[in-house]
Amino acid sequence: MNNVLFLIYNILTFVLSFLVSPLFLLKERGRRNFLERFGSWKIKNDKYIWFHGASIGEIKGVLPVLKKIKEKGEQKILVTSTSPTGLDVAKDIADEWHLLPFDSSFFYKRLSKRFTPTKIIITETEIWPSFINYFSNNNIDMYKINAIISDMTIKRYKMFKFFIAPLLNSFKKIMVQTNKELEHFKSVGVKEDKLIVAGNSKYEITLKVNSEYEALEIYKTYFPDENINKVITLASIRPNEEKMLFPALKELCDNNNDIGLIIAPRHKEKFSYFGDKLNEYGFNFTKWTENKGGKKGYKVVLLDTYGELEKTFSFSNLVFIGASIENIGGHNPLEAMVYGAYVFMGEHYQNYEEIINTLLEKEYVSIVREEKDLEDLLVVLQNFPDLLKEKGKKAKEYAYSLCGATKIILNEIGM
Q1: Do the beta carbons of residue 147 and residue 52 sit within 8 Å?
Q2: What is the pLDDT of residues 329-361, one digit of tens each?
Q3: Whole-angstrom Cα distance, residue 340 to residue 335?
Q4: Closest residue by Cα to residue 274 from 251, 233, 303
């Protein structure tokens, strides 16, 4: 029965890949390396250990694993993503990086003639039926790491357990983040001997800024004016989230000369959107790309580039984690916490629900549900900055305590 289902699925996805192509071609991000989505890769004919993650967050989450493999120098690394921006993260460490094709065995068969994967490692929530079925049937060992099934997704998986269970059991090992995820995978029919709680490699500490001196030097490039001593960064902000954030922040900046503000949109195509919104709300701002930092006389910087955001965490007092006011699910708060910054976010954090609930219990993070919540937090920043600094310090210590997943993952995949 499953063979028939896969045949139908493959035909449908093959046809749909051509039908949805115009939607990709409408956007700059969709046009990047577009033909790779049909398996048209320019890749050296060699053996690779293949890692796949959905986008930036997932690829960043496996960087600690990739770095350890790279250090050994025994295997060439291939990284794929469904997002071009996800590949940007991997370029410095991978030997090859490409967009994952549309999920049809027709495209995977085309790829398999060009190179040989020795192992395939898929991260977090990604489940592409044809991808998994094609390569597992070709005797390629497949692993799932940082594995998670959300409460919403588990309901759908149980409805299609007859299809999902054989698919997940194709993996040689599934390394889940928590005991809760272990139970989720068992409930959809995954054999217990295929499961192990390994944690999440994205919680490993891999700092871009390694000293207070380095942080100070970077800070000076953003805020040449010496009177700026409290910095707020809006990280991976999404459209419409500014509606809750900008009014209170504008008032704060107008009434205090010691506040610096950094706005870092999640997506490149939204840089101009947030530039327009900053003008609309009356902010006097400069763009990072104009000066490779900030500019004297400006307290607000639009971070209109990639690769610099983490560096801003090293000198930020307060960091907002985007995609959480809009119902998108949030991003990893520990990326800022490892630098000692105090984190706040909106109420939609389901992508990291378990870790954030723990952080809330420890009062290491704040949730803003309305503008008044943000105003109260900004009062604390102004009048009790040492309180937030102390909480940030404790959050940093907690973040370091979560390390260890990389070692387990490497052992399980035989590296």
Answers
A1: no
A2: 999 899 999 999 999 999 999 878 878 999 999
A3: 10
A4: 303
CATH class as words, domain 212-401: alpha beta
CATH fold label, 2-203: Rossmann fold (3.40.50)
CATH 3.40.50.11720 domain range(s) in the chain: 2-203
CB 70 within 8 Å of CB 77? yes
Query: In the chain, which segments carry CATH 3.40.50.2000?
Result: 212-401
CA distances from 234 to 69, 118, 210, 364 (A): 33, 41, 22, 17
- Give Cα separations from 264 to 51, 100, 116, 267, 350 (angstroms): 27, 27, 39, 9, 21
Side-chain-side CA neighbours of residue 261 (13 Å): 23
Classify each residue of 180-201 as buried b or exposed e, where b means 16 or more C-beta atoms within 10 Å of its C-beta.
ebbebbeebbbeeebbbebbbb
The reported pTM is: 0.67
SS3 309: helix
Alpha helices in 179-241 (DSSP H): 179-187, 212-222
Residue 279 CA: distances (Å) to CA of 124, 287, 300, 307? 38, 12, 11, 25
* pLDDT tens track for 299-336: 999 999 988 999 999 999 999 999 999 999 999 899 99
Distance between CA 262 and CA 351 in Å, rounded?
24
